[in-house]
Specification:
The complex is a heterodimer of chains A (114) and B (106). Chain A has 114 residues and is an all-beta fold. Chain A has no helices and eleven strands. Helices cover 0% and strands 52% of the residues of chain A. In chain A, strands 2, 4, 5, 6, 9, 10 and 11 form a seven-stranded mixed β-sheet that branches. In chain A, a hairpin with a 5-residue loop joins β4 and β5. In chain B, β5 and β6 form a beta hairpin. Chain B is globular. The chains are: A mainly beta (114), B mainly beta (106). Chains A and B meet through β5 of A and β10 of B.
Chain lengths: 114, 106
Amino acid sequence: EIQLQESGPGLVKPSQSLSLTCSVTGYTITSGYDWSWIRKFPGNKMEWMGYISYSGSTNYNPSLKSRISITRDTSKNQFFLQLNSVTTEDTATYYCADVAEDYWGQGVMVTVSS
Amino acid sequence: DIQMTQSPSVLSASVGDRVTLNCKASQNINKYLNWYQQKLGEAPKLLIYNTNNLQTGIPSRFSGSGSGTDYTLTISSLQPEDVATYFCFQHNSWPTFGAGTKLELK
């Protein structure tokens, strides 16, 4: 069974970078699918941030394009989110997911605060 | 971006009720509409994909319909375990979510 697990700091200061890791087990991320980052803001709004495909190509939400980077380490079967220049409006629960097959991590709450 | 508007934002219903949740897109999304259920502290779970296809393992009391800009999720007989927030999600273009309908027991 495919399992995804997010990890990373729960608190980030404004203007700094948010970095999260998604560790995938049960499937090799280079074998198929798109590997996504999605976030849920306080108040329930959800936003698809972007994804890295099994081939390594990336696609980002245009609203984040200048601040986001999704990369991977195929040797560790992990993919990563970096979001630069964060503000308090980036406070959210961040999920990694293979949306097409409906595999999601449990989510990690990140608060942006000084 | 395509905007997805869900109604109502909160719905109270009794066990056994037929429940209807609505989702309206700001433009035609060609039936590329999924429904997710999210319970507190859990990840979203796919219920319906591409308007009316029931995901494997989902009870048959859930069904979806719609076309163009207007879509509906129906629960034919509400069960206590259906208490959750329900999101619609379009993937006709850059994916976007609705704001959710919180389903409560009356």
